[in-house]
Design brief:
Elements (H helix, E strand, L loop, with lengths): L13 H5 L7 H21 L2 H10 L6 H13 L3 H17 L3 H13 L1 H7 L3 H14 L5 H9 L6 H14 L3 H6 L9 H16 L4 H11 L5 H15 L3 H11 L5 H13 L1 H7 L3 H14 L13
Helix pairs in contact: 2-3, 2-4, 4-5, 4-6, 8-10, 9-10, 12-13, 12-14, 13-15, 14-15, 14-16
C-alpha cells in the first residue's frame, strides 16, 4: 500500500504538470519517447517484463518515468482487453521495481490533462482511463486518497473531472475488488492471481508440504522478477506461525538458483519497511526479523551493498 503523504507530491499541482518538461532538452525527450515506444511494443509481443525493466533502466532517465506511464496507458487504451491487462499488470510491477509514487501520479495527471485530445482518436478514452485509475487503486499502485486529490484539481464538468468521478465510483463501490481484478477480462498472470498462488504454495509448505515441491511451484510461476513477494510473504508467515521452517525453503530456493540474491534482498527490505505495522499483530516481530537478518547474512542470501546494511 502506498503511504506517502499526498500533500507533499508536487505533481498534483496542475501548473507543475503542465510545465514539467518545458525546460528539458526537446531532442532528448523525443529520443526517449521513440525508445520507449519500441520497448513497450516489444513487451506487448514478448510478455518479457525482465527485459523491459532492463531496457528502461539502461535509458538512465528516471525523470521521464511519467512519460513512460502516459505512453503505456495510451497505447493500451487503443488495444484489446488482453493488452490493457498486460499494461495494468506491468504498472503494478514497475511501481514496486523502479517507479515512485510521484512518477505514477504525475503520469496519470498527464493522461487526465490530455484526455480531450486522446478522445479524438479513442472516443471512449475517458471510460478506459477511469478503469485504469480504479484498477491502479485496486493494485495498490495508487492510494484511494490520491483519487480524491486528483479530483480536487479538475472541475466536475470537465472531461478529466468526469473521468476521476467515474474512477472513484468504480474503486469505492461494493465488491469493487473482484470486479476490478477482472475489469479487462482477467488473465492467468494478473498480479492478484500470482499473489494468491504464492500464498497457497507457502501455506501448503508451512502445513507440512514437501520442500522440493514448494520450490518447483515457485519456479513454475515463471516470474523470477516477482520472487521478492515469496520472500516477503514467507518471512511474515514464519513470524506469524512462530516457525523457522520457511527458512529451509528460502535456503533451498537460494541453493537451486530459483530465488536470486537480488530478490532475496528486496524481500527482506520490503519486510523491514512494514516492521512497525507487523509489531502491532506480532509483538516480537522486530526481534524475530533481526534474527532472520543475521541468518540471511550468514548464508549469503542478501547483498549488503544494496541498501541492506540498514535493514
Amino acid at each position: 500500500m502506498l503511504t506517502e503523504e499526498p500533500t507533499q507530491i508536487p505533481s498534483l499541482n496542475p501548473k507543475t504538470t503542465d510545465n514539467i518538461y518545458e525546460n528539458h532538452d526537446e531532442e532528448k525527450l523525443r529520443g526517449y519517447k521513440n525508445s520507449i515506444s519500441v520497448i513497450i511494443n516489444e513487451y506487448l509481443s514478448s510478455h518479457d517484463i525482465e527485459n523491459l525493466i532492463t531496457n528502461v533502466e539502461k535509458l538512465h532517465t528516471p525523470e521521464y518515468n511519467p512519460v513512460f506511464i502516459k505512453r503505456l496507458v495510451t497505447v493500451a487504451m487503443d488495444r484489446k482487453n488482453k493488452i490493457r491487462e498486460m499494461a495494468s499488470f506491468l504498472l503494478s510491477i514497475l511501481t514496486m521495481k523502479i517507479f515512485t509514487t510521484e512518477d505514477v501520479i504525475t503520469g496519470f495527471t498527464m493522461l487526465l490533462d490530455s484526455i480531450d485530445d486522446t478522445a479524438l482518436d479513442i472516443p471512449d478514452a475517458s471510460d478506459k482511463l477511469a478503469l485504469f485509475l480504479a484498477r491502479a487503486v485496486r493494485d495498490d499502485v495508487l492510494a484511494p486518497v490520491h483519487l480524491n486529490l486528483l479530483n480536487e484539481k479538475h472541475s466536475e464538468g470537465s472531461t478529466a473531472g468526469k473521468t476521476i468521478t467515474l474512477a472513484r465510483n468504480l474503486a469505492f463501490s461494493p465488491h469493487a475488488g473482484e470486479r476490478l481484478e477482472r475489469c479487462w477480462g482477467g488473465s492467468s498472470d494478473c498480479l492478484q492471481d500470482v499473489k494468491e498462488k504464492i500464498m497457497k504454495l507457502l501455506e501448503e509448505y508451512q502445513s507440512g508440504g514437501d520442500l522440493d515441491e514448494a520450490c518447483r511451484c515457485i519456479r513454475d510461476i515463471g516470474m523470477p522478477f516477482f520472487n521478492h513477494e515469496v520472500v516477503k510473504k514467507g518471512l511474515i508467515m514464519a513470524m506469524e506461525k512462530k516457525s523457522d521452517r520457511m527458512l529451509d525453503l528460502l535456503q533451498e530456493c537460494y541453493d537451486e538458483g530459483v530465488i536470486s540474491v537480488t530478490q532475496l534482498t528486496e524481500g527482506f527490505i520490503r519486510v523491514r519497511d512494514v516492521i512497525d505495522d507487523l509489531v502491532l499483530d506480532i509483538p516480537k516481530a522486530a526481534e524475530i526479523f533481526d534474527r532472520y537478518i543475521e541468518h540471511a547474512k550468514k548464508h549469503n542470501w542478501i547483498n549488503e551493498e544494496d541498501n541492506t546494511s540498514t535493514i
